[in-house]
Amino acid sequence: MNIHREEYTKTLELNIDIQPYFLDHQFENKPVLPAVEAMQILSRAVFPYLENKDINCIANAEFPRFLPIPFNEKTIPVFINIDLHKKGSIKAVLITQTLSKKMKIRRMKEHVSLEFLTCDNNIDKSFQIHPIKEKYFEIPAQRIYKELIPFGPAYHNIHDKLKITENQAEAFVYAGDFASDYSPAGSPFPLDAAFHAACVWGQRYAGIVAFPIGLDKRHIIKPAQPGNTYTARIKPVSQKSSLLIFDIEIYNLQDNLCESTSGVKMKDVSSGRLRPPDWVCM
């Protein structure tokens, strides 16, 4: 991925089109923009600044706060700060502006921050996550979305069932039917469904309902295509208090690695208001 070498900062103003299916992604019964959708928006924003039009690595991503999706609106006005660095990376930050009704003070809120880098597509297979071989606990996808992750149907993209052990989770994940949501990073839905699987792991083995708050590196080898089914393998790396860290790999049905995401950070952002049901906990 060759990036323009000049170094400068640019701020874009744009309106995010609110797709009807965005309303299916909710936190405490209020629609919020998924982290994967925010990555899509930023990848489209930086695309004109790439010389060879290739995005294959997202790094140092942080999701510090949700971006609420308003009802009865068609767009969300946002700012995107883009920093082009001579070293060859691009940093992008998604920001909204709010106006205090009492003090009439404008406040800027940062929702997503990440970098676009160049990754080597040569994969060291010794570090790949292998299929589950040990005895596993099985949860039907329908029960996951009814009792554990109550999102609307657009985000019901774990298919069939989730296999889960103390050391791993694995599921078929669907790339959605929304071609309009495709970006240079591919479809967002397989990774989002993998986040769901990690959330279920956290409910069973850590006793918390965890949401993604960041990741170290997302390496996109073969962008996921809308309409396709993939296999997601999720490996818990560490658990420190309420912070869970996972590695995630997404394979096509020929078992070729398509996407590898390391250092996925997830935690309870509800201050304990959301609790897993007793039946899923160890």
TrEMBL record:
Signal peptide range: none
Pfam families: PS-DH
Chain residue ranges for the region called N-terminal hotdog fold: 1-123
InterPro entries noted in UniProt: HotDog_dom_sf, PKS_dehydratase_sf, PKS_DH_C, PKS_mFAS_DH
Residue span(s) of domain PKS/mFAS DH: 1-275
Stretches the record annotates as C-terminal hotdog fold: 135-275
Active-site positions on this chain: H25 (proton acceptor), D192 (proton donor)
Species whose genome carries this gene: Desulfonema limicola
Domain of life: Bacteria
Residue ranges of the TM segments: none
Full protein name: Dehydratase domain-containing protein
